[in-house]
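The pair is quoted verbatim below.
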Amino acid sequence: MSDTSVQPEPAAEPAEAPAAVSACPITADFLPENMRKHVDVKAPVPLRMMAAKALVPLNPPDMLGALFMLMYDAEEKIRETAGKTASTLPDRIAASGFRDEGVQPMVLGWYLEVYATNDPYAEMLILNATTPDASVAGIASHCSQKIAELIGQNQLRLLRHEQIVRQLALNPLAEGALIDGVCDFATRNGLDMPDVPQMLAAKIRLFGPQAATQPVATGPTADDIIAEFGVGVVEGEVPTDAEKAALLAMKEAKLDDGAKLTLTQKIARMSVSERIKLASKGNKEVRGMLIRDANKLVALAVIRSPRITDGEVMAQAMNKGAHEDVLRVVYSHREWTRKYPVRLALVKNPKVPAQVLMRFLNTLSEGDVKSLAKDKNVAGAIQVMAKKMIQRKNEPKKG
């Protein structure tokens, strides 16, 4: 957005509360402890009403979450007030909050639905990588031409969630050239949706008339790999003996041609779209393989996976061979860069841009700055800056 100081038109209608009041799907853990009373159903109504009117001192991302929680309040008046407030947010809250990747996905998804017809705000929400793909698909069929173009440009979302392509193809405002480009890209990368006329046309354009009745050769699917190799086990869970045995058996299984196919070899045979899906669904083992994929969209799908661990993030911050786009995700992520070890690792990584390095360098301890000043393995600019910081620290104070 070029000018966020101009407040866009508010959403046309107040946000609707859930048809039947149910338990809120998120907790108040994201709020400062002294502010949680404003969304606590046991708290006095006036306290909750203050938050429903956005009259409590919360930063924009937290205010978005608080209003979302109050849409589940037991008091109808509070739900109505919160809905009206959420639908008419001042720009100082919306412009900051909608861009923040630390806001919970379902909260951002709900606001995208609320502001689906408000192009400036819808753009912020769609560009926020935390906004769920399903929510983007939910507005793709009826959004404006401008927003349709924005959705069509996000290649990772298109391949990660095929319903976006399907819904975008239904949008009467989307230009034909945009839909053709999206469908050509999706088809080249392994998506096959013959029930979508534009996708069928793309198959014929790319592979000839005979392709109309032939499925696209995509290789193994993400679900095939997960079922075959047991690589969809939830993080932290220990595979059962049966799962371990199945994993070992499948890794050693012989194909019809007599060749042994390992997990790595099977992944290599997958289409880009299926590797992206596997990056989101699979466990740490497959993420470790896919983060090194030559296709940057696959690597980005890994670092964007909702299952990514702190250890994996740290490994990429330290990885001098990481994709630049993957590093950009790491050093732009507010929650990750709050962690001191991540900032230190990024400062030592020569692939991180100088302006980012300088910003993090100023947050490091004096001992680490001294070490960096002597470390010949870091960028020269970092060494110079670290030495200058030490010199300034040691200069005698005037007067």
